[in-house]
Amino acid sequence: AREKQKRELDFHTIRLSSLFPSSSAPRVLSTRASNTKSSLHVTHRHGTCSRLTNGKATSPPDHAEILKLDQARVNTIHSKLSKKLPDLIRQSTSTDLPAEDGSAYGSANYVVTVGIGTPEHDQSLMFDTGSDLTWIQCEPCVVSCYYQEEPIFNPSSSSSYRNVSCQSAECSSLSSATGRAGICTGSSPRSKCIYIIQYGDSSYSAGLLAKEKFTLTSSNVFDGVNFGCGGNNQGTFLGVAGLLGLGRGELSFPSQTAAAYNKIFSYCLPSSSSYTGHLTFGSAGISSSVKFTPMSTIKNSPSFYGLDMIGISVGGQKLEIPPTVFSTPGALIDSGTVVSRLPPKAYAALRSAFKAEMSQYPTAAGFLILDTCFDFTGFETVTLPRVSFTFSGSVVVDLEPTGILYSPTTSYYCLAFAGNDDDGK
Amino acid sequence: AAIFGSAQQQTLEVVYDGVGGRVGFAPNGCN
Fold first, then answer.
1. Taking CB atoms and an 8 Å limit, are A265 and B30 in contact across chains?
2. Residues 6+ away with beta carbon under 8 Å from A325
């Protein structure tokens, strides 16, 4: 009986169908988002709960594309963390998405809707804890705009829109928020401030730095939020209006609303596109069961939220990984990276333990960055070892099955982790 | 750096406390 109980504690037995959204499932809305005044619903960008699934942007990118963009984001993050950054951003026309000295953006799939301007226009924004600048597409699209589902914001129709002066502190903050200094439209003190933000996959947005009214909910309204009003936007943002920067820098949304929320926010990312999660500003409704680990600062990149990762367990067994494997490169948490990346030695230990516990299942070929895959054809249920991460302060985070397996197809499943290419990363 | 990504964060409540300098986790955050 003890063995059975231990097995239940250390393993998940799941129906494989539970890893996919059901075509017949109703939309299930987060009660937290519905009941908390400073909460927004979080949806999958391409899911049935999204506002964005009615038009041209309905078809999600395939898994190969998602993982390719994810690697581009990770390459960018690693470039930002290293000191070997080139001074200039190079435009790339190649299709292999090289790491550039841009901001991190990849296949971020989670979207919230924010009211912008007066009168307010609902705009769906990807939320991103790995970058600071919030921007949306703006009319006139001086050079180009990509397709978005909602009408593109036109500042001339908003009574609360104001351009930011080139001489302002906000314009100066662009250097740290985007990696590029603001550009002045002229030499007069009243000249405007132009921002350019380029992402690791060569997507970009450029336009005027401005201030606007942001309405989260009817009782959570902020005047004068700095944001980028982009008249030149290109890239992999199809369908959404822009991006909500939730990083740690001065221009990020949490920093700009610090007087109201004390830089506290929380979210839950739904495991299926049939569900919504929440993005909540302030401490309202935070669960009493939350366990905190110290936030560390990443050298060269103070916008990132650093964590001290100290261990991994598989099936109830702590893996033998020397502490320096984690402490030397450091770690961060990022809402925009899909698949967690681990130092090679830590990943090798995880992979080896996971394979040993899954030895009863047939293996399959790897899929891009995912090298540990299984063919579950003919299985309705499978038993997976539980995987948990330990962060400093003895904070143990037990992963859901959707965080353990990534499924490119309904019978093909891979361990949802990848190794970095050297132990220094 | 190691990166704790969104696939692994699903269904957790993830709390960022910028002034307190801490990040929190709890299970079943979407309920």
1. no
2. A343, A345, A346, A423
Q: Please check whether residue A333 touches B, CB under 8 A.
A: yes
DSSP summary character for residue A61: P
Q: What are phi and psi of A172, to 5 degrees?
A: -65, -30
- pLDDT digits 0-9 by tens, A314-365: 999 999 999 999 999 999 999 989 999 999 999 999 999 999 999 999 999 9
Cα–Cα distances in Å, from A405 out to A168, A274, A289, A394? 48, 18, 26, 25
Beta strands in A35-192 (DSSP E): 39-44, 110-116, 121-128, 135-137, 162-163, 183-184
As a whole number of angstroms, the distance between CA A397 and CA A219 comes to 34
Phi-psi region at A152: left, alpha or beta (left = phi > 0; alpha = psi -120 to 50): beta
Distance in Å, alpha carbon of B23 to nearest chain A alpha carbon: 5
Total length of chain B:
31
Q: Residue A262: which pLDDT band, with cuts at 50, 70 and 90?
A: very high
Quote the pLDDT of residue A332. 96
Closest partner residue to A335 (CB to CB) among B6, B26, B29 is B6
- Reported ipTM: 0.96
Tokens for A151?
């009408």
Provide the terminal-to-terminal Cα distance of chain A, rounded to the nearest Å: 44
Please answer whether residues A378 and A363 qualify as being in contact, where contact means their C-beta atoms are separated by less than 8 angstroms.
no
Q: Report yes or no: A411 and A377 within 8 Å, Cβ to Cβ.
A: yes
